[in-house]
From TrEMBL:
Organism expressing this protein natively: Candidatus Flavonifractor merdipullorum
Example GO molecular function: metalloendopeptidase activity
InterPro entries: Cell_wall_metabolism_enzyme (IPR050570), Dup_hybrid_motif (IPR011055), M23ase_b-sheet_dom (IPR016047)
Entry-linked Pfam families: Peptidase_M23
Domain M23ase beta-sheet core: 234-329
SUPFAM superfamilies, per database record: Duplicated hybrid motif
Name by which UniProt lists this protein: M23 family metallopeptidase
Length: 338
């Protein structure tokens, strides 16, 4: 058994007390730059939340103006009691504090339900941190636009309602009715039977320009008549226009001289082909001024009127055909009788 004096025991106790004690180790968590920035932004979010909450009750008018300039994303119908209730429940369940604050931030500042809002730079920053897409701008895209600066051109606004309305109007507006001339206008004819290839109906000639050959009075119309020379009942294939000898005979329309000739019945005559199956015939002329195959324009003088052939006086015998069918020329010309 070892024995020691009181002095030795006292010195030993003092030396033991002077020796360093083992300290309890503590763990220090160092946050990175991103985590610190995120935490700071979340704190700012909560502070703004509290400022708006208090300001709405104390200074409603001033806070309304501030909200329009600083917090355009704030919903007027936000249920703040529900937000705090959810935040408290999340903390009681030992959930991550950061995620709980983010959820609270989204509840207050998030643009949900497809609502389109105006986004400023602060609003886009909150969108990035709250993980939301605001006004159709993804969170990452919003952050990129903040970094790009205000000089970056904004995406054009498309008024889908106006476009839809314009489309609906275009579909429902009735189309303008384009009136077209009928190919044939039926004429009520009650006289004797017509010869073959003859019609009293008015056909559409499809000519761009027509001219009255001579302005005279009708001495003999188109149709059945008693021949002024023979005295027999014969069908008159054209219309006789009484004019003085030497009156200029003009081409009814542009075309080509089909043929010219001279006969005891028609005297000096010519025929013009206007295309599209339309031909005109001029007879009893005093002089012909064109040659076969010559091109003429509408209104060009092609002959001088006279009384050659089987005629009782100076006049122009004028015939008109469409696809070989004899038509009444009176439908297409003017006369001296008006």
């Amino acid at each position: 058994m070892e024995t020691m004096t009181y002095q030795e025991w006292s010195r030993k106790r003092q030396s033991r007390s002077a020796s360093p004690r083992k300290r309890k180790r503590t763990t220090v968590v160092t946050l990175g730059v991103r985590e610190r920035r995120r935490l700071l932004q979340l704190v700012v979010c909560v502070v703004l939340f509290l400022v708006v909450l208090v300001g709405k009750g104390v200074f409603p008018q001033r806070m309304a103006a501030v909200s329009q300039r600083i917090l355009p994303l704030l919903h007027g119908d936000t249920d703040f009691a529900a937000v705090f209730s959810d935040l408290g429940a999340s903390l009681e369940e030992s959930g991550p504090v950061g995620e709980s604050l983010v959820d609270a931030c989204v509840s207050v500042f998030g643009a949900g339900g497809g609502q389109v809002v105006t986004v400023d730079r602060s609003g886009m920053l909150l969108a990035r941190e709250c993980g939301r897409s605001i006004a159709g701008i993804p969170a990452e895209g919003a952050a990129a636009r903040i970094l790009a600066g205000p000089e970056e051109e904004e995406e054009p606004f498309v008024n889908t309602f106006a476009a839809h309305t314009a489309g609906a109007t275009a579909e429902t507006t009735p189309q303008a009715v384009v009136e077209t001339e009928p190919e044939v206008v039926k004429v009520d004819y009650t006289g004797p039977a017509l010869p073959a290839n003859t019609s009293m109906d008015q056909y559409n000639l499809h000519l761009s320009q027509t001219v009255t050959p001579v302005l005279g009075w009708v001495s003999s119309p188109f149709g059945w008549r008693e021949h002024p020379v023979d005295g027999e009942e014969k069908f008159h294939n054209g219309v006789d226009l009484a004019v003085n000898t030497g009156t200029h005979v003009q081409a009814f329309a542009a075309g080509t001289v089909d043929y010219i000739g001279d006969s005891p019945i028609y005297g000096l005559y010519l025929q013009l082909d206007h295309g599209g199956g339309v031909t005109t015939f001029y007879a009893h002329c005093d002089e012909l001024l064109v040659q076969q195959g010559q091109s003429v324009t509408a209104g060009e003088t092609v002959a001088l009127s006279g009384a050659t052939g089987n005629a009782t006086g100076p006049h122009l015998h004028f015939e008109l055909k469409k696809d070989g069918i004899r038509l009444n020329p009176i439908y297409y010309i003017e006369t001296a009788e008006g």
